[in-house]
Amino acid sequence: NAGVTQTPKFQVLKTGQSMTLQCAQDMNHEYMSWYRQDPGMGLRLIHYSVGAGITDQGEVPNGYNVSRSTTEDFPLRLLSAAPSQTSVYFCASQQGNTEAFFGQGTRLTVV
Amino acid sequence: GENVEQHPSTLSVQEGDSAVIKCTYSDSASNYFPWYKQELGKGPQLIIDIRSNVGEKKDQRIAVTLNKTAKHFSLHITETQPEDSAVYFCAANGEGSGTYKYIFGTGTRLKVLA
User: What is the pLDDT along chain B (114 residues), one digit of tens a residue?
Assistant: First the structure.
């Protein structure tokens, strides 16, 4: 029972590069979300999805794109990486208004 | 906009003592309040949650209290142990929007001193 799986765990990018953070869940949850975690700022919502084909912006969406073609997968794309996007990224899934299950995180450094 | 404030940001207690972390929320439509524990290098994990129709909930050494009138909820850990050392996050959610978005507090780093 894998739960929520994120890849990669660590990544270093150069400014201007693009990349995709992968997230997959095997719990058949409708709701998935991406957060970034920065020191002293808690977890801030980037984008979320309430089901396949439906996505919406969270609190800090600029510089990120998402898509949801299947229930299981919710990738996060950085279009042109900037040092301000250095952070730890967490993907989460939940079924309705209840417990969110988080992945192990991706530590991203943009130089 | 919606906001969740969490205090204190750091908390040190002696092993065996109690720890209390407090949060306030701004959205009166919020009706689900989870608490997450995050150990170093891992993702947050739910430790306890409470819904707005309940004032208190306990699970062994952990309890959460909710005061809807004051928009305030707290995490209580009794008989603390070294393995309780972690970062704790409170959050508030609501069904009004239908999107189940969480607003997280900024976290409390708890250190239990042996």
Answer: 678 999 999 999 999 999 999 999 998 888 899 999 999 999 999 999 999 888 999 999 999 999 999 999 999 999 999 999 999 999 998 545 555 788 999 999 999 998
Q: Which residues in chain A have Cβ-Cβ distances shorter than 8 Å to B59? A: none
- Residue A33, beta-bridge partner list: A48, A92
Whether residue B101 lies within 8 A of chain A, CB to CB, comes out as yes
B43:A98 CB<8 A: no
Determine the Cα–Cα distance for residues A92 and B9; give it in Å rounded to an integer.
Answer: 24
CA atoms within 13 A on the CB side of A14: 0
What is d(CA A47, CA A59) in angstroms, rounded to the nearest whole number? 8
Q: Chain B residue closest to A41 (CA)?
A: B106
Cβ of A97 within 8 Å of Cβ of B93? The answer is yes
Scanning the structure block, which residue is given the tokens 């996050």? B89
